[in-house]
């Protein structure tokens, strides 16, 4: 079952850790100039000029000279990183972005490690104020794999990873503080739906907070940028509250800021904005630190959902919206809030059009979840195919018919033409 995470209003939480001191060279003329805010697309390691990287410093860096900033590390399997896509997110959340160039698919792992180590050391020598543990990685395919390999070497220095097209769960005692967000494609020949679910199970068994979105038809491509933003935001905001490696004073300051944010959320007047903000706050952990505030946030989320539903004139669409939202976060609500949504859903299902649509939707979601778990395995897909074919009979001449016909054609395609990284089957 897909777990969606909507985008939310940004707020910068002050970090307490001291700034990293500049290392002063004996000869002032050789001292590197201080890094300024903005994009630095042609950086090189001082000690090794052939090792190059890209760096984006958020606007707040200049305004907060005594603050260390979280770091987002990006790899690209081509060896040429592109940071532009993440600039808006970085400015909203006060995050430095690092693109490590020169690390590509097929390169010797020892050489990759040497390049990464040289770049990170260079940032320290240049006095870039980077947080010692609030560090995240993101990439696609080999870039995603290179990110987690970097984390695996020193997991206690990282907050988590966003996986697209490749990934692995770091299985050491020092890695239980990591968080993961898996943005998978059920038909990705490298990281299919079944492999995504295996990683989710492994990470959660270790106690690592893990969320995922698996798009049913996505193959070996990046997830939409909005999903990447949401995934990064969830890991960053979550880890500000829970990482054991954070200094106590810093974590307490972050908890206080989160509590203030929770108390302010019910006062957001616009229902869409209130829903986005409270959705994130409901997804943060440890919620047991905010029992009173949690109840306020849950009620604010419920009021936003009911207001947005009331603005939808079509009963079928209104029911679909309420059902989807309730499936995502109903477990986080108190009894009264849960009952208010359940009451509206039950009343809507008394209408014949809603009841008929729900009968098909409910089966569709169950079968799609089974197809998602089956991934690209022909034997498992062969068990899913008859379920789609049976549902098609019930959905004849309804808006669901073309969607189910598409699912049948895709499943049949991957049964008849098994896919692999060497010979990928493409959805037409």
Q: Can you give a write-up of this model?
A:
The structure is a single chain. Helices cover 48% and strands 12% of the residues. By secondary structure, it is an alpha/beta fold. An 8-stranded mixed beta sheet has the order 1-2-4-3-5-6-7-8, sandwiched between helices. Helix 5 (193-205) links the parallel strand 7 (179-185) and strand 8 (210-215). The longest helix is centred in the C-terminal third of the chain and has 23 residues, at 352-374. It starts with 37 loop residues before the first strand and ends in a 12-residue tail after the last helix. Mean pLDDT is 91; it is low at 1-29.
What is the element layout, followed by pairings?
Layout: E1 38-44, E2 52-57, H1 60-63, E3 69-75, H2 87-93, E4 96-100, H3 109-125, E5 130-139, H4 142-153, E6 160-163, E7 179-185, H5 193-205, E8 210-215, H6 225-242, H7 248-264, H8 271-283, H9 291-310, H10 315-329, H11 335-348, H12 352-374, H13 378-394, H14 401-416
Parallel strand pairs: 3-4, 3-5, 5-6, 6-7, 7-8
Antiparallel strand pairs: 1-2, 2-4
Helix pairs in contact: 5-12, 8-9, 9-10, 9-11, 10-11, 10-12, 12-13, 13-14
């Amino acid at each position: 079952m897909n777990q969606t995470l909507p985008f939310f209003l940004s707020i910068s939480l002050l970090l307490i850790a001291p700034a990293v001191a500049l290392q002063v060279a004996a000869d002032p003329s050789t001292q590197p100039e201080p890094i300024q805010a903005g994009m630095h697309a042609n950086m090189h390691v001082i000690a090794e000029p052939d090792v190059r990287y890209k760096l984006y410093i958020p606007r707040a860096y200049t305004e907060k000279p005594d603050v260390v900033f979280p770091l987002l590390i990006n790899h690209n399997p081509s060896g040429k990183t592109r940071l532009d896509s993440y600039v808006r997110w970085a400015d909203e959340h006060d995050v430095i972005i690092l693109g490590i160039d020169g690390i590509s698919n097929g390169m010797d792992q020892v050489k990759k490690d040497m390049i990464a180590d040289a770049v990170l050391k260079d940032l320290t020598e240049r006095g870039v104020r980077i947080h010692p543990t609030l560090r995240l990685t993101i990439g696609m395919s080999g870039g995603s794999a290179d990110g987690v390999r970097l984390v695996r070497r020193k997991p206690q220095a990282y907050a988590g990873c966003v996986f697209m097209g490749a990934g692995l769960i770091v299985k050491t005692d020092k890695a239980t503080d990591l968080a993961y967000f898996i943005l998978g494609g059920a038909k990705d020949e490298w990281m299919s739906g079944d492999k995504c679910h295996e990683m989710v199970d492994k990470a959660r068994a270790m106690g690592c907070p893990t969320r995922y979105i698996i798009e049913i038809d996505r193959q070996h491509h990046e997830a939409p940028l909005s999903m990447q933003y949401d995934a990064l935001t969830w890991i960053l905001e979550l880890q500000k509250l829970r990482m054991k490696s954070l200094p106590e004073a810093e974590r307490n300051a972050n908890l206080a800021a989160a509590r203030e944010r929770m108390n302010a959320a019910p006062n957001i007047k616009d229902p869409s904005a209130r829903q986005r903000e409270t959705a994130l706050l409901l997804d943060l952990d440890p919620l047991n630190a905010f029992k009173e505030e949690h109840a306020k946030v849950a009620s604010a989320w419920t009021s936003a959902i009911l207001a947005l539903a009331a603005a939808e004139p079509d009963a079928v669409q209104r029911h679909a919206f309420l059902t989807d939202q309730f499936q995502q976060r109903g477990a986080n609500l108190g009894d009264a809030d849960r009952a208010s949504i359940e009451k509206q859903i039950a009343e809507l299902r008394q209408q014949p059009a809603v009841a008929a649509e729900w009968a098909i939707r409910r089966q569709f979601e169950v079968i799609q979840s089974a197809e998602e778990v089956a991934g690209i395995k022909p034997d498992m897909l062969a068990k899913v195919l008859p379920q789609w074919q049976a549902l098609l009979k019930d959905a004849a001449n309804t808006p669901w018919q073309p969607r189910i016909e598409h699912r049948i054609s895709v499943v049949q395609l991957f049964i008849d033409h098994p896919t692999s990284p060497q010979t990928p089957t493409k959805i037409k």
